[in-house]
Each structure stands twice: as structure tokens, then as C-alpha cells.
Amino acid sequence: MPGYGYLLVAIILEVCGTVCMKLSDGFTNTLPSIGTYVFYGLCFWVFSIALKTLEVSIAYAIWSGVGTALIAAIGIAVFKEDLKMITWM
């Protein structure tokens, strides 16, 4: 069970890193830019600890899916992004 705890922490750190990336405005704002590197670095470190006890296929599927869903929700709620289908034509 501790592997899932580390996985949860890794997901939270990844979401924080992605929010910082958005706030960095193309890496032109210093503090959010630094936050992006710090949060992603910690995220991958904690994720590697989770992988000691979890299978990589399951851990990565959960990590990417939950992270994507959280970022989508934050984008809509915090950054006022539109929720719409992407059309390619």
C-alpha cells in the first residue's frame, strides 16, 4: 500500500509542476519557472520510489490519467479555460 501513497504524492507534485508551467508564461516569470523544475524533479523522484513496489504499467496509467483529469479541472476552474471538443477540420 505505501507505493500508492508515493504515487499520490507524485501526482500532486506533477500537477503543481504543470500549474507552475502555466504560470511561468513561457518561462518568462522566474518563480513559477523555478517551481516547474523543482516540482517535476521531486515528482519523478517520488514516482521512482513508488515504482519499487508498483508495476510500471499500472502506476503510469494511474499517474497520467489522474494527473490529466486534475489539470483539466484546474484549467477550467482556475484559469477559466473552455471545455470543448477539439475539431481538426
Task: Describe the overall structure.
By secondary structure, the protein is an all-alpha fold. It has helices spanning 2-23, 30-50, 56-77. Helix content is 73%, strand content 0%.
Secondary structure blueprint with pairings:
Layout: H1 2-23, H2 30-50, H3 56-77
Helix pairs in contact: 1-2, 1-3
The backbone outline, from C-alpha atoms, is: flat
Q: What's the quaternary structure here?
A: single chain
Structural class: mainly alpha
User: Using only CA atoms, what is the Rg?
Assistant: 15 Å
Helix content: over 70%
- The fraction of residues assigned to DSSP E strands is under 5%
User: Could you give the order of the helices and strands?
Assistant: HHH
Give the number of helices: 3
What separation lies between the terminal Cα atoms? 46 Å
Number of strands: 0
Mean of pLDDT: 94
Largest sheet: none
Low-confidence segments: none
